[in-house]
Write a structure and sequence with these properties.
By secondary structure, this protein is mainly beta. It has 3 domains: 38 residues, no CATH class; 123 residues, no CATH class; 119 residues, no CATH class. Helix content is 2%, strand content 50%. It contains 1 helix and 25 strands. Strands 16, 17, 18, 19, 20, 21, 22, 23, 24 and 25 form a 10-stranded antiparallel beta sheet that branches. The chain has a 4-stranded antiparallel beta sheet with strand order 6-9-12-11, with no helix packed on it. The protein has a 3-stranded antiparallel beta sheet with strand order 5-13-10, with no helix packed on it. A hairpin with a 6-residue loop joins strand 19 and strand 20. The longest helix has 7 residues.
């Protein structure tokens, strides 16, 4: 006689028959919703929420200038800090005991790098703030206590699903829009339908180009699998520097942005037009989107 358990988080009935659970694991557990869409396949890699919180303030990375036009720009010793004491603020988020995390942002942020120490990784974002929210998902693992559904890989014993963890649910994929109006070999804005924003107060100035893509009436968090670099000529002092792409969610949709890359070289732009240069257009990033309404914050 079977014993049926109502699982509150997944909203499903699971049947547990004597001597049959092992057979289900060998074959792989597949769970579908009433409409036929797949909810769980224990033979696939499943991600769950391991941590959420705000970005924290990190280092300030100075921009760089070449010491002499006669020096080899490929050598680090050819560069010096530009305007010592100033630079671009970086923000961090640390994920301990991780395997292959995916970070989803709500708000501004462009990933500038990752530092690793053992199984702990610290993600470094530029063009962000302490109000940027981060949701970190990783491969499901042994986590939590009390009654829960767990699936294991029979060969390795590794957890493939743990109902204690909130599973990652990708609800949409949003492609970055193409560039704005072209002028010669540059673009007025990095995105069609977007706008530029110049923050000028103390050197170095910060040039953003961003666009918002409406999606719905909820708050969304966004993961950008890869980003692009470009160059910008600042419309305040004809300085040129590198920018890097980022994406984040907001209450209503998804935004893409370009902002200064950490440790960017900074040069006089001469007679170049103000705008965005050397943009990669043969491949466009596609943002992965999840809703935040069912995600605990802060968490762990």
């Amino acid at each position: 006689m079977g014993v049926f358990i109502q699982h509150k988080r997944l909203g499903l009935l699971f049947g547990e028959l004597p001597n049959c659970l092992w057979v289900l694991l060998m074959a792989g557990l597949k769970v579908r919703k009433l409409d036929g869409t797949m909810l769980l396949d224990s033979e696939k890699i499943t991600y769950g929420l391991v941590k959420s919180g705000y970005l924290t303030q990190g280092e300030i990375w100075p921009r760089k200038r070449i010491r002499s036009i006669n020096l080899d720009p490929s050598q680090g010793t050819s560069w010096a800090d530009d305007a010592p004491g100033t630079g671009d603020q970086q923000w961090t988020f640390t994920v301990p005991d991780c395997v292959a995390p995916m970070l989803f942002l709500v708000g501004d942020g462009c990933l500038n790098g990752v530092s690793a120490s053992g199984n702990t990784r610290t993600y470094i974002f530029g063009n962000a703030s302490g109000s940027t929210k981060v949701y970190a998902f990783d491969q499901m693992r042994e986590m939590g206590s009390g009654p829960r559904l767990r699936c294991r890989n029979v060969a390795t014993g590794a957890i493939t699903f743990n109902s204690y963890m909130v599973p990652l649910n990708i609800i949409a994929q949003v492609a970055a829009p193409g560039p704005g109006t072209q002028q010669g070999n540059s673009y007025v804005t990095a995105y069609a339908g977007g706008n530029n924003e110049l923050i000028k107060g103390s050197y170095p100035s910060i040039q953003y180009s961003r666009v918002r893509v409406p999606l719905g009436n909820e708050e969304y968090a966004v993961h950008l699998p890869f980003s692009r670099n470009a160059a910008v000529v600042d419309n305040s002092d004809a300085m040129g520097y590198s920018v890097i792409e980022g994406a984040g969610g907001y209450a209503g949709g998804v935004q893409f942005m370009f902002g200064p890359a950490g440790g960017s070289p900074s040069t006089q732009a001469g007679g170049q037009r103000v705008g965005y240069y050397a943009m990669v257009l043969d491949r466009m990033p596609v943002a992965l989107v999840t809703r935040t309404s069912n995600l605990p914050f802060p968490f762990n």
